[in-house]
Amino acid sequence: MMTVTEPAQIKDQQPAAVQTPGRGASVQVNNVSKWFGDVVAVSQVNFGVGPGVTALLGPNGSGKTTMLKMMAGLTGPSTGTITINDTVVRMHSDIYKSIGMVPEQEAVYPFLTGYEFVRLNAVMQNCAELEPSIIRAIDLVEMRDAANRRVGEYSKGMRQRIKMAAALVHDPQVIFMDEPLSGLDPRQRVRTIELIRELGNQGKVVIVSSHLLHEVQRFAEQVLVIVNGHLAASGSFRAIREKIDEHARQTLISCTSPRRMGASLLELDLAISVRIDPTRDHAIVVESNDVRELYKSIPRVAQKLDVRVFEVRSLDDSLASVFSYVTEAVR
Asked: The pTM is what?
C-alpha cells in the first residue's frame, strides 16, 4: 500500500472543489481515517468542497464509497471529523435534511412502484409540499412514464434514475452520487450528466464518484483523486490531464503493414520506440511523448503508405496508469 502524508497538489490550481457563487454550503473533511479490523480503507484524508460539481476519482476498491458514506453520515470515521456547514455530520439528524445520497448498491424496495419509492423518501424527509416534490423529482430523471411500475421490474438504468429521484425529492443542498452513470443507456447518460451540471450551477455541493477518467471530464472541473485510501492529488481536471500527458504513453496500432507504419512514425519523431505486439497479428505498440500529435498523424501516414488501419487504442490510459502518473510525487 502506498504511504502518503500529504496530497500531491496540482500546481496553480485550487486544491479541492470550485468555489462557485451559491448558497454557501460546504463539506470539510479533516484528517479522516477509516479502518475495518486490520484493513485501512481511508487514511488521513483532508479536503474542503464548496458549491459546484466535484469528482471523486479512483479505481475500484480505492476507498471512494467509504469516503462518500462517511460524508453522508451513514458511517462514522475511525478518526477525524467531517462537517457540513460547520456541523459534524454523524448523529446530527438535522443535517440529514440537507443531504441527498445516491448509493451505488441497489438500495431499493422491489415491491414498491417508482412513485411509492420516491414518496417514501419524501415522507421521511418531511417535505412540506409532498405531491409537487414527488412529481418534480420524478420528472427530473424522466421517469414519469414508468412511475407506476414496480421497481423490481425496472432495468438497472431505471433503478439508478429512480434512486436519483428519491435522493433529490427534498431539494438537498449537498448531494453525493456513487457511480451514478452505471447502467444508463447513452441517451440517459447524457441527460444525467446535464442534470449533474444543472445541480452544480444551482449552487449545490455535488460530489460524484467515478472510476472512469473520460466520464469525469464531462461533468466536473475539479477532481479529488483517491488511491489506496489516500488523497493522492487534487485540482482541476485539465491540470491533472496535462500531468498525465507529460508522460510517454503506449498506443497499439493494428494495420496491414505494421513494420512500415512503425518505421515511418520513428522517422517523423512521433515515436520513442516501436515494437511488434507478440499477442496479435499485424499490430505494433508505439511509445510516444506526444500522443495527441501521434493520433492526428496516423491517418496521414497510413494514407501516404497506402496502409489500412484497423485499430488505434491507448494501452496505458487505464486508471492504474493514470494514478501512477498523478501520484508519482508522493510515492
From this structure: 0.72
